[in-house]
Design brief:
single chain, 292 residues, alpha/beta, nine-stranded parallel sheet, 15% strand, binds zinc ion
Amino acid sequence: MFKRKLSNKEWLLAALALVSILIVSHIVLLRYRKKNRTESTTKSAGGLQVKPPAPLFSPPVLPEEYKRERKPVIAVVIDDLGYDEAIADKLAQINLGITISILPYLPNSQTTAQNAHKRGQEILLHIPMEPLDEEKLYPLQPGMLLLEMSASQIRREIGRQLSAVPHIVGANNHMGSLFTGSRQAVLPVLEQIQNQGLFFMDSVTGPHSVAYDTAVELGIPALQRDIFLDDLPDKDYTLHQLALTVKLAREKGSAIAIGHPHLSTIEALEEFIPQLEGQGVELVKVSQLLDL
Ligand SMILES: [Zn+2]
């Protein structure tokens, strides 16, 4: 190609030209890459945030079931028992795993507990506690703990209630949106529960309850309600709330639902509970959640 040998100066010029070409092409390539990255960020986040470049390999996302050793569990507690004995029987027929919570001093508080215990149902004491004003429209329960009571009055009353309902393994609050907001008020209740070797479940009836936190602080085995099943006494509503309970259990491993002895709640449980196994979810007695 060349007819004569290149001089040293010409070699130097050729080498410089080659280096320049390499530098320019490198700059062009870098700009092109940067432009592409900016475009993809703008597309995915509306240009508001800078997204880090996607990793070349993302590990496969495992379904939640694979992440946990055990299947999700739910507990269903039916409150306000003690009026009608037949309701505990009906709940046992649906599933013995349904926990019942019995109010003290009602005509059937004791017999409901005795019969339920014979059938193998789990029983809680349902402790009436003072609600906020708007709930006082409902008739107040016998034995209701009031904010104005002294610690020794509360201790005495709880002592009576704990022996009024036999075979209990724990206790939860009936109403109490006012009472459970006071640490001073819940302290003597929880101490009595602790002395009896029972556990406490906060029904969470108000946004300011300190009952669960106080129980944990005292070292009492404690749980708190996640879902209310029947704020509306309507079967479809309760079915929806039961599905929500299952969804929550899939997310966090377990969930607690509280319902009441309404016909619509019983009908919804009758329909929903037998389907649980097919959904890979287990119904457990509420005390079993303490072991998780
Ligand atoms: Zn209640």
